[in-house]
Amino acid sequence: DAGVTQSPTHLIKTRGQQVTLRCSPKSGHDTVSWYQQALGQGPQFIFQYYEEEERQRGNFPDRFSGHQFPNYSSELNVNALLLGDSALYLCASSKYRTSMDQYFGPGTRLLVL
Amino acid sequence: QKEVEQNSGPLSVPEGAIASLNCTYSDRGSQSFFWYRQYSGKSPELIMFIYSNGDKEDGRFTAQLNKASQYVSLLIRDSQPSDSATYLCAVNTGANNLFFGTGTRLTVIP
Fold first, then answer.
1. Cβ within 8 Å, pair A104-B98
2. In this predicted structure, what is the pLDDT of residue A16?
3. From CA B57, how far away is CA A40, in angstroms rounded?
4. What is the largest CA-CA distance in chain B?
5. Sign of the alpha-carbon torsion through A74, A81, B96, A102
6. What's the average model confidence in pLDDT over A28-48?
7. What are phi and psi of B82, to 5 degrees?
8. C-alpha dihedral over A12, A15, A18, A20, to 10 degrees?
């Protein structure tokens, strides 16, 4: 049973560039949530996708956008990168309204120079 | 503002001892509570969750919830060096997303 997968594992970008991160949920899960984890902090909720729609959003600017595909996989896009966007980006999958527990992928470590 | 507070540590315990990790939360509407373990450079791994007041045991781990005091804890019995990690407390207020504390770093000394 495949767990949550994310790509790429590491990424280096420069300020002002755009980045796309990808996530495939655990088998049987239909909901994908994205989190940002800065060094020494807990993960912060960015947004959640279900049925190809953004269902909830945390306190992140519009530079952060996403998409969910019919196969439940998801993308996180960040435009106009800032140095402060450097973090570990985590994808978590769950079963919508069935289970509260979320399972995390290995994450994508983004460094903005 | 939903807040989850944890003592950042580090918490050091000798091998075989009980490690006690604590967490408080501000939103009284919080419905479910989670403990994740995160090794350095890795993603969070779900240890256990609890919904109801009282204790819930799973192997060497026991989660305790007191909604009146807005307090949740994790006890690790017979601590092992492999338990050395950062433990994240997370709260779900019913909106199906998680609010995390900053984590407590635990070191188990052989």
1. no
2. 98
3. 29
4. 41
5. positive
6. 94
7. -70, -10
8. 30
- CB count in 10 Å sphere of residue B109: 11
Q: Which amino acid is at A87?
A: A
- Residues of chain A numbered 57-86 and touching chain B (CB < 8 Å): 58
The residue with tokens 């996180």 is: A76
The answer to whether B13 and B106 are in contact (CB under 8 A) is yes
Amino acid A47: pLDDT:
95
Query: Does A93 touch chain B if contact means CB atoms closer than 8 Å?
Result: no
Write out the two tokens for B93. 């207020």
Q: Is the peptide bond before A8 cis (omega within 30 degrees of 0)?
A: yes
In this predicted structure, the answer to whether residue A57 has a pLDDT above a threshold of 70 is yes
pLDDT at A4 over 90: yes
pLDDT along chain B (110 residues), means of 10: 83 97 92 94 93 94 96 97 97 82 96
| B72 CB burial (10 A radius; 0-12, 13-18, 19+) | buried
**How many residues does this entry show for chain B?**
110
Token representation of residue B73: 């804890």
- Dihedral over alpha carbons B82, A38, A10, A69 (to 10 degrees): 100
Query: Are the beta carbons of B44 and A90 separated by less than 8 Å?
Result: yes
What's the token pair of residue A41?
């902090």
Q: Do B88 and A107 touch (CB under 8 A)?
A: no
What pLDDT score was predicted for residue A76? 98
Instruction: For residue A113, name the pLDDT band (cuts at 50, 70, 90).
Output: very high
> Do residues B73 and B20 lie in contact, with contact meaning Cβ atoms separated by under 8 Å?
yes
